Automatic annotation (TrEMBL):
Cross-referenced PANTHER family: INNER MEMBRANE PROTEIN YHJD, UPF0761 MEMBRANE PROTEIN YIHY
Protein's UniProt keywords contain Ribonucleoprotein: no
Domain of life where this protein originates: Bacteria
Protein name: Membrane protein
Chain segments annotated as transmembrane: 24-53, 92-116, 137-165, 177-197, 209-229, 241-267
Source organism (scientific name): Tropicimonas isoalkanivorans
Keywords from the named record: Cell membrane, Membrane, Transmembrane, Transmembrane helix
CC per GO annotation: plasma membrane
Residues covered by region (Disordered): 278-325
Location of this chain's protein in the cell: Cell membrane
Bias-annotated ranges (Basic and acidic residues): 278-287, 301-325
Topology class, membrane: Multi-pass membrane protein
InterPro entries for the chain: Virul_fac_BrkB
Chief localisation class: membrane
Length: 325
């Protein structure tokens, strides 16, 4: 019990020290700034790509169902952008699909690139340089946008599938529960991809998709979003201080908390990995040093020596010969 408590306190101490020495707060601020610049191009890319296969209005409808997971001030800004994209003229959306989708993905890359830099700082690995860094960030941006599109399709199709099940009055509850489970799964998978593909590490050192750090990050992010929303509804007065920019400042703060939590989850993985490497190897049991006969090395002729029974027979023969003579 005391050994377990020591490990827990050692872990918490290492986490607290890591937050300071690796400058998580400062890095999270930079990631939040780039995230604010990247979120609107990312939404443009998602809605535009979705428009190739289905009605963009579905994006707005499904986005509404997650209003409780995002602070109201931030949700209002994002909802306006999604609504403008989804309900805009089809020719405008098509024009955007031709001219702007590449620009949108390129702009979104800046936010992902900043987060990759933060993950490298957490793991204390050197950042990739030049074109390689840009391409890695762009590739990861494409992967995350693809994950968002697959998740959106799943959220749209899932209620239709559930409606065919004989759930009776529980159908509505099942649909809502499934929607939230899909949302949590997408966030977990997205963070896991960042942890695995983001840092500049060798293949054998990369983390799994689902790790302790990613689970901690999802749980803390949900709790922080709820807490920040409650604070804004009851105590926050950003509009009184920042005027018309109050909603933007609130969204920037939410991005800061989100980035800090993602980096905190990565630090959790890094500390646990270091503790496993520093743990002493278990002592082998040396009570039984016997070696099985089938693995014993064969005896040499010198080790075998002479057989005592053979010596006794030779002595008896010599005595018999002496008596006869």
């Amino acid at each position: 019990m005391f050994a377990s408590l020591r490990k827990i306190f050692s872990f918490l101490g290492a986490m607290g020290q890591g937050v300071g020495t690796r400058h998580l707060g400062l890095i999270a601020a930079g990631v939040a700034f780039y995230g604010l610049l990247a979120i609107f191009p990312a939404l443009t890319a998602i809605v535009t790509l979705w428009g190739f296969f289905a009605d963009p209005v579905l994006v707005e409808q499904q986005f509404q169902s997650y209003s409780n997971a995002i602070p109201a001030a931030a949700f209002g800004i994002l909802e306006t952008q999604v609504n403008d994209l989804a309900t805009g003229p089809k020719e405008v959306l098509g024009w955007a699909s031709v001219l702007s989708i590449g620009t949108a993905l390129w702009a979104s890359r800046a936010g992902v690139g900043a987060l990759i830099g933060g993950l490298n700082a957490v793991h204390r690995t050197p950042a990739r340089g030049g074109l390689r860094s840009v391409l890695r960030a762009l590739l990861l941006t494409l992967v995350l946008v693809g994950v968002a599109l697959v998740a959106l399709a799943t959220v749209v199709v899932a209620p239709v599938v559930v409606s065919f099940l004989p759930l009776g009055p529980f159908a509505g509850f099942a649909i809502n529960a499934l929607r939230w489970l899909i949302g949590a799964g997408v966030v977990l998978f997205g963070i896991g991809l960042l942890y695995r593909l983001g840092p500049n590490r060798e293949e054998e050192d990369r983390s799994d998709i689902v790790t302790t750090g990613s689970i901690v990050a999802v749980a803390c992010w949900a709790l922080a979003s709820w807490g920040f929303s409650t604070y804004l509804e009851n105590f926050g007065r950003y509009n009184e201080v920042y005027g018309s920019l109050g909603a933007v400042v609130a969204m920037l703060m939410w991005f800061y908390f989100s980035a800090f939590i993602v980096l905190l989850g990565a630090l959790t993985n890094a500390i646990l990995e270091q503790m496993r490497e520093d743990a002493p190897e278990p002592v082998k049991d040396t009570a039984d040093d016997s070696v099985p006969d089938d693995v014993m090395p064969p005896e040499t002729e010198a080790e075998k020596g002479d057989d005592p029974d053979e010596h006794d027979g030779q002595d008896a023969d010599r005595e018999q010969d002496a008596k006869i003579s």
